[in-house]
Design goal:
2 domains; alpha+beta; 8-stranded mixed β-sheet; Alpha-Beta Plaits; 13 helices
Length: about 425
C-alpha cells in the first residue's frame, strides 16, 4: 500500500466538488450565508452526513447538534484522534472559513477507506455548530456545549438577530436537546481524545505576503474586549472656549488611542505578542454638532495576545493611562468592564511534529500565531493536545472574497494526513 500522504489528487478533486456544493447551496446576495442553527449550516451538516454514510462511517449527533463522523479503529478503547472545524459562516461571508477543516477531515477519511486500511485509533471528524459570533452573542457555542461549558443563561438570552428567537428555540427546532446543554451534560470526554488537529484558512494576510502556502500555528490569541468605554467631558461653544478651559472628550480620546498605539509598539520592540484594535470611536450625533465642543464620546477596544499575562498587564496600563489623561484634561475616561477570553494553548509536541513533517514531505510552511479565535482553543483549554494548520487565503475572511487555492489546500491536507498517520502509528 502506498503512503497515505503520497498522492492526494483524487481527494483534492473530491474536496473541490464538496466546496462547490457548499457554495451553490448557501449562496446569498454577495457571498455565502450559513447561519448558525439555520438552513445553510444544516445543509452543510447534511452534506457531511451523506458523505459519511457513503463511506460507512459511524455517525453521532450530540445534544447541541455537533456532528461526529468516525472511522473505527482496531482498538476502540484507545483515545480518538479528532479533526474538524465549524460549518457556519458569517452573513455574506466566504466559502472556506471553517468548512475547509471539515472537508479536509472527510477527504482524509476517503483516503483511509480507499487504502483499505483500518487505523489503530478511532479517527473522528467533527462538524462543530455555531462558531461564528455573528448569529448569537456567545463564543464557541458548539464546542463549549460539547464539553459542558456553555452558560445556561446563553440558551435563552442569546437571540439570533434575523429571527429574534433564542438559541434554545433554534436548537429545539432542529431536534436537538437544549435542556441537556442547560444541565452542563458533557457530550465529549477530554480523556477519550488523543488530540485535536484543526485545519483552517488563515484569516489575515501573512501567508499571502510571504508567498507561503501553509502556516503552523504557535498559539491562539486570547483577548480583552471592552465594549462600553465612555469619556465624559463638558460641552461648550466651539468659538468662545479657549483651549485652556476646554474639557474636550474627543481630544482626550484621541490622545488615549495614540498612546495605546505607542504602548503597543513598545511591546512589539520587547518581542511580546500583541495586537490592539479600536473598533468603534464616536460621539452622539444627536447632540454633537460642528460648532460644539464634544462633551461625550464612546469607543471599544479589542486587545489580543498569546500570553494572558501580557493582556492583564495591558489592562493595568490602559487604566492608569485613562486616569492620567482624564485628570490632566478634566474629563472622566471610564473603560468599563472587560471580558477575558483566554489564549488557546497549542501542544508543543504536535507543533514540533507538524514542523518536522512539513519539511520531510515537502510542504512549504512557516510558524505563526492565530489572531482569530477557533474551536481549537476550547479543546486546548480542556487539556486536549491541540494543533492547527493554516492554509493561505487571499483577501482575508468574513467577506465574500475568500480565495483559497485548491493547490494550497492539497498541501495542508497532505500535512494533516501525514500527522494523523504518524500519531496513529506511534
Amino acid at each position: 500500500m502506498a503512503d497515505l500522504h503520497s498522492d492526494l489528487e483524487a481527494e483534492t478533486t473530491l474536496s473541490g466538488q464538496w466546496f462547490d456544493h457548499l457554495r451553490r447551496h448557501s449562496r446569498s446576495r454577495l457571498g455565502v450565508t450559513r447561519a448558525s442553527y439555520g438552513d445553510g449550516e444544516q445543509m452543510a451538516h447534511s452534506l457531511m452526513q451523506g458523505i459519511g454514510q457513503t463511506l460507512g462511517l459511524e455517525q453521532r449527533i450530540d445534544a447541541a447538534g455537533n456532528l461526529y463522523l468516525t472511522l473505527p479503529g482496531q482498538d476502540r478503547s484507545l483515545p480518538a484522534i479528532m479533526t474538524g472545524s465549524h460549518l457556519d459562516s458569517v452573513p455574506e461571508g466566504g466559502n472556506y472559513d471553517g468548512a475547509a477543516g471539515v472537508v479536509a477531515g472527510m477527504a482524509m477519511l476517503v483516503r483511509w477507506r480507499r487504502a483499505g486500511r483500518q487505523p489503530k485509533h478511532d479517527i473522528t471528524v467533527m462538524g462543530v455548530r455555531a462558531e461564528e459570533l455573528s448569529w448569537f452573542p456567545a463564543p464557541y457555542i458548539g464546542s463549549r456545549a460539547a464539553f459542558g461549558l456553555l452558560e445556561p443563561e446563553a440558551l435563552d438570552a442569546c437571540k439570533r438577530p434575523d429571527t429574534g428567537r433564542s438559541l434554545a428555540e433554534h436548537m429545539a427546532e432542529l431536534g436537538f436537546a437544549p435542556d441537556r446543554i442547560r444541565a452542563h451534560e458533557r457530550q465529549l470526554d477530554p480523556a477519550k481524545i488523543r488530540c485535536f488537529l484543526e485545519l483552517h484558512i488563515e484569516q489575515g494576510p501573512v501567508l499571502v505576503q510571504q508567498a507561503i502556502p501553509v502556516g503552523i500555528v504557535t498559539g491562539i490569541r486570547g483577548n480583552l474586549r471592552y465594549k462600553d468605554c465612555h469619556i465624559v467631558g463638558r460641552y461648550g461653544h466651539a468659538g468662545a472656549e479657549p483651549r485652556t478651559s476646554r474639557n474636550d472628550a474627543v481630544f482626550a480620546g484621541t490622545e488615549f488611542v495614540s498612546r495605546l498605539e505607542r504602548a503597543w509598539l513598545a511591546y512589539e520592540r520587547a518581542g511580546k505578542d500583541l495586537v490592539c484594535t479600536v473598533g468603534q470611536f464616536h460621539t452622539d450625533t444627536r447632540v454633537h454638532t460642528m460648532t460644539k465642543i464634544p462633551g461625550e464620546m464612546w469607543f471599544t477596544m479589542d486587545i489580543r495576545s498569546q500570553d494572558n499575562e501580557v493582556l492583564l498587564q495591558v489592562d493595568r496600563e490602559v487604566r492608569a493611562l485613562a486616569q492620567e489623561i482624564g485628570e490632566r484634561r478634566g474629563v472622566t475616561i471610564d473603560l468599563g468592564d472587560f471580558t477575558n477570553s483566554l489564549p488557546g494553548p497549542i501542544d508543543k509536541d504536535h507543533f514540533a511534529r507538524l514542523e518536522r513533517l512539513a519539511g520531510a514531505i515537502g510542504v512549504p510552511a512557516i510558524a505563526m500565531p492565530s489572531g482569530a479565535g477557533h474551536d481549537s482553543a476550547v479543546f486546548g483549554r480542556m487539556g486536549v493536545p491541540t494543533a492547527m494548520i493554516f492554509i493561505r487565503n487571499e483577501h482575508g475572511s468574513h467577506n465574500p472574497d475568500e480565495a483559497m487555492d485548491l493547490a494550497d489546500f492539497a498541501l495542508g491536507l497532505k500535512l494533516l494526513v501525514a500527522a494523523v498517520e504518524e500519531i496513529d502509528g506511534a
